[in-house]
Amino acid sequence: MAGNLTREEARERARLLKVESYEVALDLTEGEERFESVTTVRFTSASPGASTFIDLHGANVRKVTLNGTDLDVSAYDADKGRFPLTSLAASNELVVDADCTYMRTGEGLHRFVDPVDQKVYLYTQFETADAHRMYACFDQPDLKATFQLTVLAPAGWEVVSNSAATGVEELPEQAGKHGTIQAARRWEFAPTPVISTYITSLVAGHYHKVTSEHDGIPLGIYCRSSLAEHLDADNILEVTRQGFDFFHRVFGVRYPFGKYDQLFVPEFNAGAMENAGCVTFLEDYVFRSRVTDAVVERRAETILHEMAHMWFGDLVTMRWWDDLWLNESFATYMSVLAQAEATRWNRAWTTFANVEKSWAYRQDQLPSTHPIAADIPDMQAVEVNFDGITYAKGASVLKQLVAYVGLDNFLAGVRDYFAEHAWGNTELEDLLNALERTSGRDLSSWSKEWLETSWVNTLRPEFEVSGGRFTSFDVVQEAPVEHPTLRSHRIAIGLYSLAGGKLTRTRRVELDVVGARTSVSQLIGEEQPDLVLLNDDDLTYAKVRLDEDSLRTLVDGGINAFTESLPRALCWTAAWDMTRDGEMSTRDYVKLVVSGVATVSDITVLQTVLRQARLAVQQYADPAWRAEGLSLLATELRALLGSAEPGSDQQLSFLQAFSAVATSEEDLDVLQAVLDGTSVPEGVTVDADLRWTLVQALVSGGRLAEDGIQAELERDPTAKGERSAAMCRASIPTAEAKQAAWAQIVGGELANAVARAMIGGFQDPHHPELLVPYREKYFAEVGRIYQEWTFDQASTFAVGCFPALLIEPTTVRSAHDFLSTAQPPQALRRLILEGADGVRRALRNRETDAASA
Ligand SMILES: [Zn+2]
User: Fold this and answer.
1) How far is ligand 1, taken at its centre, from the CA of residue 234, in Å?
2) DSSP output for 336-378
3) How far is it, in rounded angstroms, from Cα 724 to Cα 756?
């Protein structure tokens, strides 16, 4: 991997330079491999005569001129992606004329051809440091500058960038270097305000466009032409308007980037990207098939997350990637707040407790866990840090900070922070200072306790009861020896009683838990209820345990009896944590799911619980019980499919989950009948994506093979169809099919999205036995791949192809052997350790499950 800029280098360069402007001229009319990129940079140097370098990756450099003097182009270091600059003047003008490379990995300027109509689509993705794959630049967040783009593009294309186009000039067909040039258009864009390179952007191609306006802000929504019929622009625009109104109200600063475009782009690696005024989204958020409201809710969260970044991230930007967590956590926290307060998803905090917190707890217990405030010495370190700590634990801790300082004080501090640092770069301290001023609280010990240490505490109730009343009640706080920090938690304790089939809260106490044991005197003398819930209302960040009586209430049907969604979700999370930690057997967890899943009304919680139950059976169950567990789950899901309300989200969720666990001939018959249309549950629409879900289950079950996949692809010859077919082919349960898939995956020629799909099919949890030969092959290849491929592609492979389904001590041993012999770079080491930890956990949980038999 090239271009690993270090923090030291970035600091040095920022001390030396002040960048004023980039003018970037691109020619996208010639060639499928490369494009012309001419960059003019104006910058000053604090010490004339000094040397530095500009970043430029994957380029053929034609000509470089510094202050009118041609530089020797052979000085370009292609390996490092740097061009050295010496003898700087006080004020400099640098012109770099190069051919740059289109990417197929979703990094830099990505090029995609739609298989439906052969139309071309381009988009950029530059975070963390890939802007210099499109134009020469000082690619670090604290060297902000204005950015002015000119693009020559084929006629018929839309071209979108951070600012509005100021002119579009028609150029007729003409003679060019490689023959006749098609008719083209030259797009001129207004210079942006000063922004960081990683949020500059370009999106171009035959995009379909919907325009609107809100509160003086021009709005645009874009997607590929072949998806236009599926674009539900009204829903997206509604959330966008709600978001602008909310953020304008709470941030006190107007949206600073003029127009606001949201573009759904093909083969995107992340959920979305906050390019100033030009936000790109994962194209799966254009729904070509029926999705549940969980997905629509997630899209709204993503829309609001990116919008929050326009202020926090784009207007005020972290100086260096150490503060990436703050950038992401703030956007996540604000998006959920906006969602709960300004949209129809008023239960967004339940989703947060269920999805974000589970992600954070999981990540925080990996051997690679790290403090929220991470040390990021170089770009490789930040690339692996887009994780559950950075997004979800950080947001959980911000939520807890808000509980500590109060929402009004928090928002007042945020307003001051925007006003003071607009267009600048900041560090964590700048925000903490603003919050201390508005709240009057000292945040240094909070910051130390929560931001500078790792791992999650466990809170456990311990009480004695006499005559049905508590004679003592303590909250016990635990931390493992390797991460011994005990923290201060503000928590609520809820007492829940069953009456008339309903489990309702009869008492709530709120208190500070500090140290190893906190006595809760308020509860002494109180009647023992049916269920005691620590961290009720989800105020703090901690795993909670249920006492034996409460757990029995839950398992005996209490999970169905909650009248509120949040405590129910918290109990589901507690049960899952106990299962993951080997304190509850897999079979008990699966039985809890089977008994309680019918009444889960929050669709996100339902889908999470179903996913966790599947994972539990496939990975955490005693192998001797696995088949029984799978059949238990399949039988229940089939029954639920029959009884669910026709056309409901629940029904679709049950069908999707059933497809993933159907292995018996009888169950496969049910899926086959849905696919064939001979027996479709009332209310189910067998659309393109559902068909592929069914096809994949039937392929994995041995009912369909290449012919069936090919027939389905002919029916759905779209990009999504191609990816689904790739996934299905890789899940054909034969040694030959696995071998063919493996060869393509390690060949490295696949586009990012296709590679991901193929890996998904290759790692079919129903047939781990076919993957045994690939354990050794994986460890033989992963080091080379990590060196040679781009970061995203390499980590997709490193994580996706790790032999996670081979739950055997050999896998753990192989991983450690690899680490000691290959001595891989830190970032890869981390991914391997995480994979091995998952296998170790599964082995432990299988033992727990076997012992409970
Ligand atoms: Zn973000």
Assistant:
1) 23
2) HHHHHHHSS-TTHHHHIIIIIHHHHHHHHTSTT---SS----B
3) 10
Q: Check whether 544 has a pLDDT greater than 80.
A: yes
At 435, which helix (H) or strand (E)?
helix 428-439
What DSSP designation does 230 have?
G
Q: In sequence order, which residues have a C-beta less than 8 Å from that of residue 394 and are 6 or more positions away?
A: 325, 326, 328, 329, 332, 372
Residue 282 Cα to ligand 1 midpoint, Å, equals: 13
Helices in 72-223 by DSSP H: which ranges? none
| Alpha carbon of 330 to ligand 1 centroid (Å) | 9
Q: Cα dihedral angle (187, 190, 193, 195), rounded to 10 degrees?
A: 10
Place of tokens 């009248």: 563
Task: Indicate if the pLDDT at residue 177 is higher than 90.
Answer: no
Strand partners, 71: 64
Kindly list the distances between the CA atom of residue 124 and the CA atoms of 157, 202, 820, in Å, as whole numbers in the listed order: 16, 6, 38
Alpha helices by DSSP H, listed for 677-734, are 688-700, 706-715, 719-730
Tell me the CA–centroid distance for residue 331 and ligand 1, in Å. Answer: 6
pLDDT at 2: 52
State the residue for tokens 């901690």: 542
pLDDT range class, residue 176, cuts 50, 70, 90: low
Helix axes 565-580, 548-555, angle to 10 degrees: 110
Query: Where do the DSSP E strands lie in 139-236?
Result: 146-154, 158-161, 165-171, 174-176, 179-181, 184-189, 202-205, 207-214, 217-224
Structure token digits, residue 127: 């975070």
Q: Pull the structure tokens for residue 591.
A: 């039985």
- CA 416/CA 438 separation, integer angstroms: 9
Residue length, the chain? 853
pLDDT of residue 419: 97
Helix/strand/coil for 474: strand
Q: From residue 133, give the alpha-carbon distance in Å to each of 103, 107, 280, 403.
A: 9, 8, 18, 43
Q: CA separation (Å) from 396 to 227, 349, 612?
A: 36, 11, 21
Task: Tell me the CA distances in angstroms from 371 to 325, 435, 555, 763, one per residue in order.
Answer: 10, 21, 36, 31
Give distance in angstroms: CA of 810 to centre of ligand 1: 38
Q: Which of 297, 306, 328, 356 is catalytic?
A: 306
Kindly report, residue by residue over 245-255, the tens digit of the pLDDT.
999 999 999 99
pLDDT at 266 over 70: yes
SS3 state at 224:
strand
Instruction: Burial-class residue 767 by CB neighbours within 10 Å (0-12, 13-18, 19+).
Output: middle
**Could you check whether the bond before residue 540 is cis, i.e. omega within 30 degrees of 0?**
no
Is 749 annotated in the active site? no
Q: How many CB atoms lie within 10 A of CB 607?
A: 22
Look at residue 513 and give its three-state secondary structure. strand
Residue 1 above 60 pLDDT? no
Smallest CA-to-CA distance from 388 within 416, 366, 420, 408 is with: 366
